[in-house]
Design brief:
The chain is α+β, with helices and mostly antiparallel strands. The chain has helices at about 40-45, 60-70, 110-115; strands at about 20, 40, 70-75, 80-85, 125. The chain has one domain. The protein has 3 helices and 5 strands. The strands form 2 sheets. The protein has a 3-stranded antiparallel β-sheet. It has a two-stranded antiparallel sheet with strand order 1-5.
Amino acid sequence: MNKLLIVGADLERTETWIKYEKNLCGSCVSSCCTLPVEVRFNDLLRIGVVDEFERSEPARNIAKRLIKDGVVERFNQKTGIYTLVRMSNNDCLYLDRKTRLCSIYERRPDTCRNHPKIGPRPGYCAFRPKRPA
């Protein structure tokens, strides 16, 4: 059987994703940073958009404030999961448009820290190569 070389993954079609290898990140356009980022309170605390004293606040109230502030897109009260806002081009709010690097890398959410071990297709990434300069 002939193997086809996939030049760039389609985010919507996980079957086009390739097996993750650590060296892929440096030559990718950060396509994983265009996927929805689900976070919990501890992630929001680490990012610095909530304070420890807010832990006793109803999550619904925190979500309302963060939606108004443009940090959170939605909140699932049943699971306690917040989804971070993405820019109009689907980039994560914290992805630097010029460098394509995370602007909060040391404080990034657990979802990002654990990618691609977790996600739509664990162990695979939506690799899309950078265009030659």
